[in-house]
Amino acid sequence: MNLQGTEIAYYYNWIYGERLLNLPLIREVSLGDTGQKGEREMKKQLLIAFIIWILGLGFGITHSVATPLLLTYGDSNFVGIINPDNPANPANEGAAITELIGLPLNGVGTSGGNTVTRSGITFTPALPTVFTIPTNASYTTTTVTGLTGSGYVAAKYDGPNAGSLVWYVSDLSQGIQVELNWNPSDPTNLNPNKYQLSGINVFSASSVPEPSTLLLFGAGLLGLGLFGLRKKQNG
Length: 235
Known about the structure:
2 domains, 7-stranded antiparallel sheet, 3-stranded mixed sheet, 4 helices
């Protein structure tokens, strides 16, 4: 049984989600009188597109890991300040972050004896209110990689008057980087008398599929498409 161009189009549109990839390599192939030749052409097109997709996924992962997102006071990811953030443990910071989320822009509140000050940054969509309290030890370097999903980053700076800066990052997989020194009395960091970073806590708000999961998903779709094509022809 030979397949017509419209039937072939159904299969690759089903696999690629109505041509979301928009690849010029994928085109409707009319099997008509050519039968096996058309089937081979279709399989070749699917294989080429799948290889391109894998290469693109690999490039994206490599690129994101190589360029961590720099987080600074007052940037577009900045949620606010916990001051003095004492004691600076994940549970207390988590409660303070919850207080920050509920404040109006530039609002001031309290949490566990700490003053929390919300930034004037508007987030769209709204900041997530559900997140996970980390159980691992704090990161002690300015750069953190190997993260997934989205979440809040709290960077604690030593000193009797220092506190923690809090950011929300929608894609942690690219890695994050914070400043080594900061002075709460001079947030823009012009004052040479600064406090040094003592630790970073990351509060996960969601997760994203790992690369291996995406790869298996893509391979499964390709296999289903080829299986359906053969079954349709044999039928």
